[in-house]
Amino acid sequence: SMEEYINAKRRIFLNTNQNTTSILNADDNAVVELARDPSVQRGRILYFSRKPILEPQIMNIGGAVQMGQQINVRTGPEIEYYSIKDMKMKGRHSIENMMAAILAAREHGATHTAIQKVIDEFRGLPHRLEYVRKVGGVRFYNDSKATNVHAVLRALDAFDENVILIMGGKDTNLNFTPLAEAIRQKVKNLILVGEAKERINRDIGDYSETFLIGTFEEAVHMAYQKSRIGDVVLLSPGCSSFDYFDSYIERGNYFKDMVYRFK
Length: 263
What we know:
CATH architecture of the largest domain: Alpha-Beta Complex
Structural class: alpha/beta
Helix content: 25-40%
Largest sheet: 6 strands, mixed
Order of helices and strands: HEHHEHEEEHHEEHEHEHEHEH
Number of domains: 2
Strand content: 15-25%
Strand order of the largest sheet: 6-7-11-8-9-10
């Protein structure tokens, strides 16, 4: 349950002291509630947020706030400013992760110049909303690490374009209905494969033009065939890989190998 999940995270703070710095997401109500725990209060708390309305408050107590194409940061006496206009990673969650990383880096003495260089150049980790290449005006993204519904929602949040979404994998009785609205708004074609394809189809297949495909290779080819200039083909399975592959890494690499062969 969510309560059990929060309690598990709460244990992280059991050994905090006055020399500990906790970096917390001010936009997450569960995290804000967690910050009231006495064990968290023992140390310093820095907050980050994508809500400009929180900028005055967070700059007063310490933290980072996204202000359009800029992140305002205060970990010391002065406010610092970082540009994200050249940031390579996609998605609002990537901006949240970047703010947390900036705060951690500044706490450990990284310079403004070094941090800005990373913001401008870092392309993210493999299999996590990883840009693969553009073929015929279609962009391909590998998000094979997305093995649950929440991760797929995060991936879809990164795109405004027509998305051709490849989902499926091992059936572990997940509920995919929370994806319904995002599928309806953003997904042009839903390509389903693997053990879980029937379950996914029952939950969200009515919200997009949906195809149930026999093999992973056929699913990737179908996505490419359905794509048009300006589309995004996104592998974000929402399931573990253990029906066809040994790991999400093997699945993601297989997807990338196929995309590199497209002409």
